[in-house]
Specification:
The chain is of the alpha/beta class and about 250 residues long. Helices cover about 40% and strands about 15% of the residues. An 8-stranded parallel barrel has the order 1-2-3-4-5-6-7-8, surrounded by 6 helices. The longest helix has 17 residues, at about 180-195. The structure holds phosphoenolpyruvate (PEP). Phosphoenolpyruvate binds near residues 231 and 235.
Length: about 250
């Protein structure tokens, strides 16, 4: 089975000005100087270049929080994959539940965004996850399967290993309610099975858990067989807390 390098991503959402992003990177880098993990910071668009420049030569890579599927065009307010690549951005979060919920991000758009990111040389971090109602109705696996099949429909099996998948149960995001390690492992193992059925090198795909990850629960979650890292929101805004989560992986 291939070794999967632990992957820790900081999703800042709409937090941090350029100056605050710079201060964060300066505080984080000395704390993670020895890490062998993949560390990714996802700042708002305006702070991308600052984080790229400040983190050059370190373990930190940089991801955008969204992109449009087209290369260019009349899409006011949007940013394309080639624009992100020109800014030396490495990856892009796609399908975060907040974008699905508040900005009408559809599986149809994601089916175009994921291959567009790959084609441009960006690593997609595709977020999937069920609502509380779906979990209560025992629909978790059905929701995950539907999202994965739709969002990855245009990605050839051979390229799937280049996609990072984040399992983010909506009821655990920003709520302080974390999935139990068993719930998270079950969902991540299921995601790996779905990817395997697509003919991919599923054992090479990094699958992250996201939802109220903190230094106190990170080690137990990431010790699970199919959990290869974390997508961290609130706790990633503090360099000490994020460094502690990186250490726990
Ligand atoms: C997220 O933003 O993807 C997330 C998981 O947030 P939080 O860690 O705050 O729950």
């Amino acid at each position: 089975m291939p070794e999967r390098t632990p992957y820790l991503a900081a999703n800042w959402k709409m937090h941090k000005t350029i100056a605050e992003a710079a201060a964060f990177v300066d505080a984080l880098l000395p704390r993670i100087a020895a890490t062998q993990h993949d560390v990714v910071i996802c700042p708002p668009f305006l702070a991308l270049s600052e984080v790229v420049e400040r983190s050059r030569g370190s373990a930190v890579r940089v991801a955008a929080q969204n992109m449009h599927e087209a290369e260019f065009g009349a899409f006011t307010g949007e940013v394309s994959a080639p624009m992100l690549v020109e800014a030396d951005v490495d990856a892009v979060v796609l399908g975060h539940s907040e974008r699905r919920q508040h900005f009408n991000e559809t599986d149809e758009a994601l089916a175009a965004k994921v291959p567009a990111a790959l084609a441009a040389g960006l690593e997609p971090i595709l977020c999937v996850g069920e609502s509380e109602e779906a979990r209560d109705a025992e629909q978790t696996k059905a929701v995950l399967e539907r999202q994965l099949q739709a969002d990855l429909a245009q990605v050839e099996g051979a390229r799937l290993a280049g996609v990072v998948i984040a399992y983010e149960p909506i009821w655990a995001i920003g709520t302080g309610r974390t999935a139990t390690p068993e719930q998270a492992q079950e969902a991540c193992a299921f995601i790996r099975d779905v990817v395997r059925e697509r003919g991919a090198a599923a054992d090479a795909v990094r699958i992250l858990y996201g939802g109220s990850v903190k230094p106190a629960n990170a080690a137990e979650l990431m010790a699970q067989e199919d959990i290869d890292g974390a997508l961290v929101g609130g706790a990633s805004l503090d360099p000490e807390e994020f460094a502690a989560i990186i250490d726990a992986a």
